[in-house]
Amino acid sequence: MSKSNLLLFTLSIVAWTPLKAAPSSIPMPEIYFSPEGGCTDAVVEEIARARNSILVQAYSFTSTRIAGALVAAARRGIRIEAVLDKSNRTGRYSAADFLINARIPTFIDSKHAIAHNKVIIIDGNTVITGSFNFTKAAEESNAENLLVLRSPVLAGRYTENFLKHKAHAKPYYGH
Fold this sequence. Notes:
The chain is an alpha+beta fold and 175 residues long. The protein contains 7 helices and 8 strands. It has helices spanning 3-16, 39-49, 64-75, 87-90, 95-101, 136-140, 152-168; strands spanning 30-34, 53-58, 79-85, 106-109, 118-122, 126-129, 144-150, 170-171. The radius of gyration is 18 Å and the shape is globular.
């Protein structure tokens, strides 16, 4: 690589790097990849560990295992809320109706062309995020990634974003 190309490459990385550095106290994330890399298992296990609250933002949500884990958590007394993309309102196999039938407050974010978030915040400490949609296809067929991050600081930022989207989302009452 020529010196000028190296300089341009370095400058592009510097320009891309966020100005705020992550706190050094944030532990290394757990990292999963699909297909069949344990993403769904990781999500289900984290939901099972919840003690107080679970906040879900999802674009595509059809995984019966993840939806079942959320319902089991709700039955244990965990406070759960979900903000889903508008495609879940009309999707034939959406978990939105499953969650509503389990009395889990569910909201539809139709303010955006696509509410493309894939985030679960657990107990104000754990954030699950990545490209991984909460679907069977994401686990078995797609090339996806999933991070499990343990940090109250990051969970706080993601919770702020969740609440921002919940504020303009509409309650979902089912089909």
